[in-house]
């Protein structure tokens, strides 16, 4: 493995939004590989709590309709915005694929819930890095509409949704970003 390429991959990971996505579809085998990489996330007691619901094709329109209907039904009149409604409905339609990020809680509750949430987040990071390697734009959005979408997503007992992972090939140049110095965030304890 080329460690420099690996380090660069991590530094290249970005949130890339649907308005920059192209019409190019993502091949089934690539989506499957991205999900397979997610499946290799670390998790305590081997609970493998991540669950994914993949929206493609006509299902993107169903998702768009659901998000729009939820916004209209749950937004106070004084806060309602036609522009926000349009943007909410447009994002799935601009995407090649949208994945609902869900978690199946260990029925035995053999470990703290936060550990399973962390495992799901690790699975999403694997997806994000995989998308970066394939030059697929992606981002994780967690609107209340999808957090409360138990019926729409047909979630079972102990399942919950943590957001949507939008994906699509894009036309964004890689923009270099800065991070604060790691030395400001680390305390070394040697004795």
Helices and strands in order, then pairings?
Layout: H1 3-12, H2 28-38, E1 50-55, H3 58-74, H4 82-94, E2 97-104, H5 113-133, E3 136-141, H6 144-147, E4 159-169
Antiparallel strand pairs: 1-2, 2-4, 3-4
What do these coordinates show?
- 40% of the residues lie in helices and 16% in strands.
- By secondary structure, it is of the alpha+beta class.
- The chain has a domain at 18-55 and 97-172: 3-Layer(aba) Sandwich (NADH Oxidase), CATH 3.40.109.10.
- The protein has a 4-stranded antiparallel β-sheet, sandwiched between helices.
- Helix 2 runs antiparallel to helix 5 and helix 3 packs antiparallel against helix 4 (82-94).
- The radius of gyration is 18 Å and the shape is globular.
- It starts with a helix and ends in a 22-residue tail after the last strand.
């Amino acid at each position: 493995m080329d460690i420099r390429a690996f380090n660069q991959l991590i530094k290249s990971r970005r949130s890339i939004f649907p308005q920059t996505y192209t019409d190019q579809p993502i091949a089934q085998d690539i989506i499957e590989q991205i999900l397979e990489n997610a499946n290799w996330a670390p998790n305590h007691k081997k609970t493998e709590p991540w669950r994914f619901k993949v929206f493609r094709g006509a299902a993107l329109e169903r998702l768009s309709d659901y998000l729009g209907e939820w916004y209209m039904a749950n937004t106070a009149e004084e806060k309602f915005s036609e522009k926000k409604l349009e943007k909410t409905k447009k994002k799935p339609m601009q995407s090649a694929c949208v994945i609902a990020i869900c978690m199946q809680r260990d029925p035995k509750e053999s470990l703290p819930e936060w550990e399973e949430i962390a495992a799901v987040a690790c699975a999403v990071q694997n997806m994000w890095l995989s998308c970066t390697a394939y030059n697929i734009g992606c981002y994780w959005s967690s609107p209340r509409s999808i957090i409360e979408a138990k019926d729409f997503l047909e979630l079972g007992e102990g399942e919950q949704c943590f957001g949507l992972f939008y994906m699509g090939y894009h036309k964004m140049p890689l923009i270099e970003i800065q991070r604060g110095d790691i030395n400001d965030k680390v305390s070394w304890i040697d004795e």
